[in-house]
Amino acid sequence: AVKEKRSVGFISLEMGSQQIVERIISNLSEVSCENLRRGNFSRETLSKVEKISSDLQSSHFFICDKNCSEINALINQATALKHSYGIDILFIDYLQLIEANGRSENRQNEIASISRKLRMLSVDLEIPIVCLSQLSRKVEDRGDKRPLLSDLRDSGQIEQDA
């Protein structure tokens, strides 16, 4: 999306914006985060890292690492990103870290409620929302280790909303 000059929103409940940027640069440059921090790479790689960093700075990639772990705060932040920057897509890292507004009998019901609210938010903002989710351990028991929708952790509702 960034390469296509699209506006991208990224809400992280797990990492700070600096760490996210570092990981993106590491991934695109094929230099480990540790080597990036140490400056342990060739001049040729330095040019590549600088170009990636420059491209990322001039892109329309907006990271929110504010504390918006509660679903209503997250919805407000997503709405602000849409209205302020016209984001075309939103990524959220990750579903199981989002807290429901009211406590439910169990976490599965909370996750189902959060999933439904994110689906409604996607419709309201008219953008796709990609919400990362943990997988259950069942995937490790299969020979091919390929995840299925049914492996999404904590709720069958996630599978329906996806």
Task: Give a quick summary of the entry.
With 162 residues, this protein is an alpha/beta fold.
Per CATH, the class of the domain at 8-16 and 61-161 reads: Alpha Beta
Low-pLDDT regions: none
Cα shape: globular
Question: Reading side by side through the largest sheet, how are the strands ordered?
Answer: 2-1-3-4
Distance between the termini: 20 Å
Secondary-structure element order, as H and E?
EHHHEHEHEHH
Mean pLDDT: 85
Strand content: 5-15%
Question: Could you walk me through the main structural features you see in this protein, from its secondary elements to its overall organization?
Answer:
- The protein is an alpha/beta fold and 162 residues long.
- It has a domain at 8-16 and 61-161: Rossmann fold (3-Layer(aba) Sandwich), CATH 3.40.50.300.
- 49% of the residues lie in helices and 10% in strands.
- The protein contains 7 helices and 4 strands.
- The chain has a 4-stranded parallel beta sheet with strand order 2-1-3-4.
- The longest helix is centred in the C-terminal third of the chain and has 19 residues, at 107-125.
- The chain is globular, with a radius of gyration of 18 Å.
- The two termini are 20 Å apart.
- 18% of the residues are buried.
- The mean pLDDT is 85.
- Residues 1-162 form the SF4 helicase domain.
